[in-house]
């Protein structure tokens, strides 16, 4: 008992709860791909919601599908989870065809669905225990309750939980079978900032244990923070795929150096800087450069040498959000699959 | 170690495991059922309340059209039929619609629990409730209203109860397809049940009822269930209490119920709605 208490205390101060809880992969598998999708298509009547999508997810990777509502994210996730049948193409999840719905696959996959209820009259503990029984390998109930921080609510019925707490319960239920692959469909929608950080660290630690995470989100910072690779979807197709820092040539784009210049100085007084473009708007200077380090050094050295008081000095790369908005800019008002389904 | 086990042995052990899972699932379903007071009242207390009210109103009355049998010998089996329908059909249809709308069925589909095992557990839990309902109704009927449970007609009584439970449980699951959303469930279910109870000899004997209405009632399983039970409780009944026509009707509706239930269960939870 005291051992448990000290473990819990330790947990609160530590940042990697999963490792401390001894969560390990109990069943191993051959190296390879967790998910393989080739020319996947899904039609609902006349409308093609997914139009020929191909990608691979390596084992142990956090892969993120990013895209506006109606881009086809949920169609793809639910095909991989076995809830929907594809119209065309190939799909392999842990080496199995999800359309066959084998029990073995469901043993090894954890799912957090969007807006999916639980048996409302049962308590948190009862639900984790109940869903755990379905699995051959399962994590202890107490461990999962600690993991998603539902200690105070363990005897509360699901009916009485707020939206954010229900999402945490969702995560616990997805992890109860110690899965190799976890699907998270918009897992932090409705979380407060603190809870989101907590969920992120939980998801990160899943990855540290060699679990594969397939994530969909429309939060840029979430993709940036968690994903090893991001695929941006729009109108049923993947329009860009890569590491978040490289997506859409983000790493190749010029960085932006901004600062304010005292009024007795002008743009022409600045030294020679390696840059694409520099401009002055009022007292604000914007320098676009592909050699951010050299340019920043040149500017700051000049400022110190000449005793110029530069204000609000900053160097930024284009954010993932900038790239995303650029990529997903609507070309034509396409009718989304969700609209047709309604 | 599992590599050594032969496939057939593996299947045996997984069946044993699934049966164990059904047992556990029935316990969870029961716990959830009794915690939800609203549901308990709607499906369990309601019929018993009707029993007490009607039986008290007509205390000591006899039904001349049925050979002067005591009113309670007619009404207690009628309420037993109504209670059975409430705990199986009404309860199953409403709760399944709620589980479907809340996405619980979808969630269950994503777990390793085989769908048949989940359905078996839901039916098993319903059987527990039906059994309690039957025992309480009979105990009340025998203890408070002087109804006699006769040994000779017991086989007919049990056969009618078993077939009736099978028909109304499977129909309850199958009818969920007709329920557009959970809020509409009580309305749809009562629309299907209530009008039929009035022409199916649940509340009062069919004395003076137009033949056309009786013929309509005979198509449906409510009258067959009520009539079969009333037959077994009728003091004038001779033999083992079997009413061939009622049992046949219930058997046909069980077949329809199983068909509709399977159709509902085959429809994928992800794609609909």
Strand and helix layout:
The complex is a heterodimer of chains A (342) and B (273).
Chain A: H1 2-13, H2 17-20, E1 33-44, E2 47-58, E3 62-66, H3 73-81, E4 88-93, H4 103-108, E5 109-112, H5 124-133, H6 141-147, H7 163-175, E6 181-185, H8 193-208, E7 212-217, H9 220-226, E8 229-234, E9 237-242, E10 255-260, E11 277-281, E12 284-289, H10 292-305, E13 311-316, H11 320-327, H12 337-341
Parallel strand pairs in A: 3-7, 3-8, 5-6, 6-7
Antiparallel strand pairs in A: 1-2, 1-4, 8-9, 10-12, 10-13, 11-12
Helix pairs in contact in A: 5-6
Chain B: H1 7-35, H2 37-57, E1 62-63, E2 69-70, H3 71-102, H4 104-109, H5 115-145, H6 154-174, H7 185-199, H8 211-219, H9 221-233, H10 244-266
Antiparallel strand pairs in B: 1-2
Helix pairs in contact in B: 1-5, 2-3, 2-5, 3-5, 3-6, 3-7, 3-9, 6-9, 6-10, 9-10
How do you describe this structure in short?
With 342 residues, chain A is an alpha/beta fold.
